[in-house]
Automatic annotation (TrEMBL):
It holds the Pfam family HTH_Tnp_1_2. Residues 9-64 form the Homeodomain phBC6A51-type domain. This is Homeodomain phBC6A51-type domain-containing protein. InterPro entries: Homeodomain_phBC6A51-type.
Amino acid sequence: MSRRKRRGRPVAILDARHHQAITLLAEGRLSYGEIADNIGIDRRTLHRWRMRKDFDRELRKVLARNEREWRRTMQSRLRLRTAHDMTWFFDAVGTV
């Protein structure tokens, strides 16, 4: 059995710019162009990063962590014990 060499570019390790992009993408407030400008890369580079499996895996981890944190906070906040809790809830939901 012969082993085949993998062709193509070697996979690079995610650096600080990648992690900064992941954080900004997970927040969901900025567009791709704004995120790229903040990091100092081209928008197309950000699109190429999104196609990488390791980048996508890290982004999914951050999104899952944010969701768990949001659920934990919501469970404690939804008890609505004080007027401050009620104000926070209605501000978060977007009513009143």
